[in-house]
Design goal:
This protein is of the alpha+beta class and about 140 residues long. The chain has six helices and eight strands, in the order ββαββααββαββαα. The protein is globular and about 45 Å long.
C-alpha cells in the first residue's frame, strides 16, 4: 500500500529517487505511464497488469476508449531502479507532466503519482478548498 507525499529532485539525467518505503512494494521493475491531470502514474507490475487487462477489454468501437488505451498503454514504460533507488523518466513523460527540478511523489494506495512540484501545489491548494464538497459527494456515493 502506498501512502504519503514526498518531494525529491530530478537530476540532469531525468532520474528521480523513489522513496524506499515504496520501492520495497514495487520490486525491481515497475510501469510508468501517463496519468490524469498532467501527472504520471507509477504502478507495481501486478497492478499494471490488472489495469491493462481492464483497458484492453473495453469496447474498441468507442473513440474515448481507443484514445485512453493509446495514451496509457502506448505511453507506458517499464522502469527499473538503479542501486540508489532512482528511475529514469523517459523524455516524452517528462514533457507530458512538465517535470522540472523538483517533483512530488504521492502514494495513492495501489499506485504512485509523480507531479511537478508547482502543478501539485496548485492542485492541492484548489482541492483543499473543495474538501467539504468532496466529502459531500463521497457521502452521496455511500462512502
Amino acid at each position: 500500500m502506498f501512502l504519503g507525499e514526498f518531494r525529491h529532485n530530478i537530476d540532469a539525467k531525468k532520474r528521480l529517487a523513489i522513496p524506499s518505503k515504496f520501492r520495497s512494494e514495487l520490486g525491481q521493475k515497475a510501469v510508468l505511464t501517463i496519468g490524469f491531470d498532467k501527472c504520471l502514474f507509477l504502478f507495481p507490475q501486478k497492478e499494471w497488469e490488472k489495469l491493462a487487462e481492464k483497458l484492453s477489454s473495453l469496447p474498441l468501437g468507442q473513440t474515448s476508449v481507443r484514445e485512453l488505451n493509446r495514451l496509457m498503454l502506448a505511453g507506458a514504460a517499464e522502469v527499473e531502479f538503479d542501486r540508489l533507488g532512482r528511475v529514469l523518466i523517459p523524455d516524452y513523460l517528462v514533457k507530458y507532466a512538465d517535470l522540472k527540478k523538483k517533483a512530488v511523489i504521492a502514494g495513492l494506495y495501489n499506485r504512485i503519482e509523480i507531479w511537478s512540484e508547482s502543478r501539485w501545489d496548485s492542485y492541492k491548494t484548489k482541492a483543499e478548498k473543495e474538501l467539504g464538497n468532496l466529502a459531500e459527494k463521497l457521502g452521496e456515493l455511500g462512502v
